[in-house]
Amino acid sequence: MSLFADLQQLLGASHVQSNEEAAPYLTDKQGRYVGQVIAAVHPANTEEVAAVVRACVAADTPVVVQGGNTGLMGGATPDASGHAVLLLLDRLNRVRVVDTDNDTLTVEAGCILQNVQDVAREAGRLFPLSLGAEGSCTIGGNLGTNAGGTAVLRYGNTRELTLGLEVVTAEGEIWNGLRGLRKDNTGYDLRDLYIGSEGTLGIITAATLKLFPLPKAQATALLAFDSLAQAVQFLSHARAGFGASLTAFELLSADCLALLREQFPEGPQPFLGVSQPWFALLELSDNHSETHAREAFEAVLGDAFEKDLLANALIAESLAQSEALWMLRENMSEAQKRAGRNMKHDISVPISQVVAFVSHTDALLQAHFPGVRHFTFGHLGDGNLHYNVAHPLDSTVDAHMANYAALSLLVHDSAHAHGGSISAEHGIGQRKLGLLDRYKSPVELDLMRRIKQALDPKNLLNPGKVVEVAP
Amino acid sequence: MSLFADLQQLLGASHVQSNEEAAPYLTDKQGRYVGQVIAAVHPANTEEVAAVVRACVAADTPVVVQGGNTGLMGGATPDASGHAVLLLLDRLNRVRVVDTDNDTLTVEAGCILQNVQDVAREAGRLFPLSLGAEGSCTIGGNLGTNAGGTAVLRYGNTRELTLGLEVVTAEGEIWNGLRGLRKDNTGYDLRDLYIGSEGTLGIITAATLKLFPLPKAQATALLAFDSLAQAVQFLSHARAGFGASLTAFELLSADCLALLREQFPEGPQPFLGVSQPWFALLELSDNHSETHAREAFEAVLGDAFEKDLLANALIAESLAQSEALWMLRENMSEAQKRAGRNMKHDISVPISQVVAFVSHTDALLQAHFPGVRHFTFGHLGDGNLHYNVAHPLDSTVDAHMANYAALSLLVHDSAHAHGGSISAEHGIGQRKLGLLDRYKSPVELDLMRRIKQALDPKNLLNPGKVVEVAP
């Protein structure tokens, strides 16, 4: 019997799609990669996932897992050989346990992130992971890529939000590691090995996640700075003054703000005529009250003005104003898209290196590619910048994009030289795989390969992603 | 040339000790295990650690790493065969980098925890890891065991406090993973695999640790509860009311308090005559001011009284009173020691299972071992109880301790049945190694073995600890 027929028998014919039927899943979000498959399968539960993996192992067939297909690195797109089975977890979308006394939530991997947030809120709790794609990405995808987002400063990456996992191994066995424990030192940390491994070591089918108290009040401000150095100094001041109440600190350059005004003339227009080169969106979460949040805000900002750590501040006076300020940050992707393609770099450096990185890299790019325009923004509180570069105004998008490899190399080399990472929150997938030889030591690559070979000796789980192994 | 002579040549004769000279390191803190070695070596730096490992690999000789020798599971004590080399990192005690803008500190593994705390404080920052042995344990040992302590509720275990590591591999190569990044998704999470692996996968030689703002004020209270269920409900209330300001919530039973009074008659005597069965030490850290901390305290406690979540509260009015309250918690180990040996269990369960676990296990032990006395205390905020059991008053310590295996089995079975862990913060070492077959699934043990074999194929790093591999 063929593998296709085997899979139909295991799952029911209606849950197994042909290559043609699976078309929507076979191109990545950016349209950069197009794959082919033997079949796309929609198992109903963890046991069926395990059965699919066992059938694929028996047929020596690769298994590629995909969540909401919102990744940027092609990590969830099978290759073009047509040899793989695509595993879709949309039917694993149950909330298994809500445990408010333990402040945990156990959900299946196919749950949409926004639904997980909603379930938490209905239970009177906060699940803080928040990112642009939250309406369509799945928690399984978030776990597979250790997703970041806008609340990392306070709550950490997906890794820090996870207590336990359920995983189907490369042999199609089920590891039940769904522990709701804050402390458990009984062996190797398998959980964190699977998180961020992009489906190359095992298939995450469920997770026990941490919940937090819902904040009683939030306060938002847009701040203006005379320099990037001032913004970094202010951040340190704000961390000391707000402590864990500081939940977001999102940087936007003046050029980003100008782009937003240009592309969204109907949108909010804060700080019109203000000449500062850098801005940041600051959010505070308070567990007392609106008044309390407001007082803390005014105390810390007032102190910052006195110490010359801040040039200007616009404090949201209402929820509507707060949402308008956040809309600036959220519109950045779309504003860039409307202005034409640009080169995106998801880098991170130590916060103490942000100023040096930006000034060095800006100058370097101007020397090699005169006139390119910098749209630098991102999660300054995490040292994570979206260091994006658009075409010179006297040139074309196409001419600019032709320089992608050479320009990106300069940016990544610079991030690396400043102690940074070439992928802060987007992962490696297939798109950055070729860069690892340049930025990882042979020792680290060897350790990664050994782990891949130990947990997936036949190299059947999402092959050709994250790490290259000898055929 | 013998390995001993090789090591002398590598490190200088004065840094290589014979088995006899190494005696202080060869018995564990509890006096439970006594080892023998070929040599104990004190390398000066990471390169020398790597050279020692390479020499040992060439001679097919196991390497056991030891920090401050304060572990409770015998994890740092070599076996009695006399075949191993003991690796001591006391000379790797440098602070490499203090980066206040990045809120990180890079230190070598041999640094004493208290010194790391002090270096952070001198830089105007907090390194929050805090535990009883902090004056003698090393940060390398904390990393190797993923140490917990009294600030986990707010700041997490050692794992959550660590951004990067430097590790010597089983082949004597150096992995430089000393990244000071909050976000880095460029491959498998080697860092968290080494943390908590108790020297069985690699030798941690340095780490980049997270720093936090120093709190401006702290407030401490001892609370009395009518039941354990009330204490758990109060905890949920306190988390919502205090948010991340809640830094400790340490449980003490009335029997613990009575024991403290008995063994430390000169010590603090709070709540004399109060009849509640459970107490908790609550600590709040505030980033505003003493007044602010005090107001938050009174608001949340007042609300708790109204909602019947609290029976009584004693708020420290001064630093001296706060220290007196903390002394209760800190004296618990010594109080038990003075009262004679007892059976200690370092378990954790989901917080929602704490009440069921304690009532079920108390009843079970009374049924099987009538009259045993329960001294239950610990980190309720993390679901981590030190569930300790002393001899019946009409029996002897020796008669009681003879039942250790049978009684502990009941306790561990019960923790496991309540979704818990048999080692919350003390690790596995050699002492709990035999228990893993009972409480870990074959799938998980197999995954652990595969990782051990992948990273230490010759089984030379701390063999016979954490995981058993086929000879």
From TrEMBL, chains A, B:
Protein species of origin: Pseudomonas migulae
Keyword line: FAD, Flavoprotein
InterPro entries for the chain: FAD-bd_oxidored_4_C (IPR004113), FAD-bd_PCMH (IPR016166), FAD-bd_PCMH-like_sf (IPR036318), FAD-bd_PCMH_sub1 (IPR016167), FAD-bd_PCMH_sub2 (IPR016169), FAD-linked_Oxase-like_C (IPR016164), FAD-oxidored/transferase_4 (IPR051264), Oxid_FAD_bind_N (IPR006094)
Record PANTHER family: BLL6224 PROTEIN, D-2-HYDROXYGLUTARATE DEHYDROGENASE, MITOCHONDRIAL
Name of protein: FAD-binding oxidoreductase
Origin: domain of life: Bacteria
Sequence ranges assigned to domain FAD-binding PCMH-type in this UniProt record: 33-214
Family: Belongs to the FAD-binding oxidoreductase/transferase type 4 family.
One Pfam family from the record: FAD-oxidase_C
